[in-house]
Write a structure and sequence with these properties.
Blueprint (H helix, E strand, L loop, with lengths): L7 E4 L5 H13 L2 E6 L2 H15 L4 E5 L5 H14 L5 E4 L17 H16 L1 H6 L3 E6 L22 H22 L4 E7 L14 H9 L6 H13 L10 E3 L2 E2 L9 H15 L6
Parallel strand pairs: 1-2, 1-4, 2-3, 4-5, 5-6, 6-7
Antiparallel strand pairs: 7-8
Helix pairs in contact: 1-2, 1-8, 3-4, 4-6, 6-9
């Protein structure tokens, strides 16, 4: 990879929790970091906070709402206009939705935000990643994927919605995406996933019921956001990982996954369906 001072990193979902701490750590290392967020005022406040804390003035804001295909496309155009090459992409944005919500594009929220958001961002910036020479993509997944199951007859979970199963399935999709991307990407572009652990952040607190109750009770015993971000930062920067791709890590250690996450036919089918739904594909 290029010297860190010459590198450009992009982190999605970066106004709080793991994403924010990932930006903080990468900025302290000296990279130029684009922080992606939904809200202009909140995002700019975080940019100013992290500039002051890290002493790195090269932290900047890009706006995106992953629940909107139009917003994602505008975001990709914005990033492409800013940078000729992108060294690191950290796909971190995501959410847990206790009740079924549908996006304006007609998809269930977990599926569109947590999976199609990763897919669109990575494919939309593929040429910028290739232009960096040796580039890396890091996808924040979760051990929750063990509870997921991909139903191609109902990807938008129109029947029998259960928030945790929808979330778990989206995290399984992250791993299937990583596995298939690793097969399709050139050797100069690596992609890996990580489980940050159960982190004391704002994640899940906007929901009602069991998930919110769990976080409120368990919060004092959970990992810090900085601890959750550590493996993302390591995957983004460690020299020894230059040729490592298609793997899943927990606390900097490679881990096994659910068998479905290693099913190449399932991964290919999800990729093809994602292409159809987003209208995006890798260049020939």
């Amino acid at each position: 990879m290029r010297p860190i001072a010459d590198q450009v990193h992009l982190v999605t979902g970066a106004t709080q929790g793991i994403g924010k701490e990932t930006v903080r750590a990468l900025a302290r290392l000296g990279a130029r970091v684009i922080l992606a967020a939904r809200d202009q005022a909140r995002g700019q406040a975080v940019v100013e906070e992290l500039r002051a804390d890290t002493g790195n003035a090269r932290i900047e804001l890009a706006l995106v709402d992953f629940a909107s295909f139009a917003s994602v496309r505008a975001f990709l155009d914005d990033v492409r206009a800013r940078v000729a090459a992108l060294d690191v992409l950290v796909n971190n944005a995501g959410g847990y939705f206790g009740r079924r919500q549908q996006t304006d594009d007609g998809h269930e929220m977990s599926f569109q935000v947590n999976h199609l958001g990763y897919f669109m961002t990575t494919l939309g910036l593929f040429d910028r990643l290739r232009a960096a020479g040796d580039a890396r993509v890091v996808c924040v997944s979760s051990d929750a994927h063990w509870g997921g199951r991909v139903d191609f007859d109902d990807l938008d979970r129109t029947e029998g919605y259960f928030g945790y199963r929808a979330y778990a399935t989206s995290k399984l999709m992250n791993l299937l995406f990583v596995a298939e991307a690793a097969r399709r990407f050139p050797p100069s572009l690596t992609i890996n996933a990580q489980h940050p652990g159960v982190v004391a952040s704002g994640f899940g607190l906007g929901e009602r019921g069991v998930m919110k109750a769990f976080y409120l009770v368990a919060r004092p015993f959970l990992r810090t956001a900085a601890q959750g971000a550590d493996t993302s930062v390591w995957l983004s920067t460690a020299p020894e990982l230059g040729a490592v791709t298609g793997k899943y890590f927990v606390r900097r250690r490679e881990r096994s996954t659910l068998a479905d996450a290693r099913d190449p036919e399932l991964a290919r089918r999800l990729w093809t369906e994602s292409e159809r739904l987003t209208g995006m594909s890798l260049p020939a």
